[in-house]
Amino acid sequence: MNARSKNSVKAIAIGFIMPVAFLVAWEILGRRGILNSSIFPTPSRIFTSFMDMVSRGRMQKHLLISLLRVVKGFCVGSVLGLVIGTVIGLSNAANALMSSIIGLLRPIPMVAWIPVLILWLGIDEASKVTLIAIGTFWPVLINTSRGIKNSDRKLLEVGIILEKTRLQMLAKVVLPSAFPFIFTGLRLGVGSAWTCVVTAEAIAAASGIGYLIMYARELSQPPVMFSAVMTIAVVGLILDAILLRVEKRVLRWNEPDEERG
Length: 261
Known about the structure:
The chain is 83% helix and 0% strand. The protein is mostly helical.
């Protein structure tokens, strides 16, 4: 095992210390009655509830529905964010035209959009996917435009000297230079998309992880509710890790030589 692998294993081990210590303390406090089990069920009860739902296929059903909504909304929102963010980053006129609109719409909380979208699109999938797309759109838009505006001027000058076309400059200089910002926006967009789908399902849905949380709350089933919340946390972590992995692959050229080896 080389030094890089050892450091990776060490970092992963250190990262697990706090979560494990938290769960152990939670379990001990719950078993001793210090924590009210009707509000804070022990991790063992939550795990048992989770496995019961998995064995009956209930958790997979709701999780798959939520993931499909997230994928649809994330794809729409990220593509729009990339396209419009690129236009804003390249054009001062577009930036001036859009800045006031962005300033007005971006601060609106996602919860405030739900009744509006239900009024416009109904209570079906379209309103939920649109909400997720809106939540994804903003971080991707802002980071893409910022990344393009911060493109390395020296690289742009080299492209001009080599007489590259605008399309070649965009594809081979501007966008690659903006990739770190773009991936930051995509990672933030995934987190926002996951938050939006749970919010939408908790308010107006008959399926999905958000619906499962609200249904468990109404039936006073804390273990089920916490199982769904923990599932959200784990899936969100996995989605972020996947994007981080893709980012490292795409930006491998930007790493120091010793890190590549």
